[in-house]
Amino acid ABC transporter permease (Bradyrhizobium vignae), 223 residues
Amino acid sequence: MQALLDNFADFDALMRVYPLLLQGLLYTVTLALVALPLGLLLGLSIAVAYSFHHRWLNVALLVHIDVFRAFPVVVLLILVFYGLPFLGLTLGGFAAAVLAIVLNNSGYYGEIFRAGIESVPRGQYEAARALGFKPLHVVLYIVLPQAVRNVLAPLASNSLELVKTTSIGALVALPELLRSARVAQEQTYNPTPLMAAAVIFFVLLYPIARWVARLERQALVAR
């Protein structure tokens, strides 16, 4: 037991490197706070544009969704960070991680919002149009509030997964929580910082995971 504590719960080692972990936590939270609303906004824009049912626009939107959902986010980050410089665009680690996460999740959010919009009965559109609403106003003020309510559980679930993917920043030396924990491990020759990072992730995400589970149960009951 003592050997286990010395290797995975070394308080002295943790005290020496906790500033690194705090820095990593700040980067992780910042990355999530930037990428999450951008991913939601892009996905919502895709779904709203799709709802107007212009043939060639819908084809382009479906290609976007399928392409960026097909790429693992780690592969997408490599392409963004190492590939774009060949096209004359060089991004830092933070910007590259944000772009990769947003592009990947925009496909998932787009499909979720699209399913929500299509779940709203067509009678809602027709009634709003009969009252004189313009097509865009019908979508924004009549359809979207109902659509979001219908897909709140999968939106929350995907948002939870997005926060987890912020750890890919370690791949491009972004000092987020995982990367900082690995640097701290190298400095202390002890895996305690990695265990601390795991605990931090758990403490941050477990309440959200429970909330998502409750939303999913409520959605099942509503059906």
User: Anything to note?
Assistant: Residues 94 and 154 are 27 Å apart (CA to CA). The longest helix spans residues 11-50. The chain has a mean pLDDT of 85. The domain at 25-181 is CATH 1.10.3720.10 (MetI-like fold).
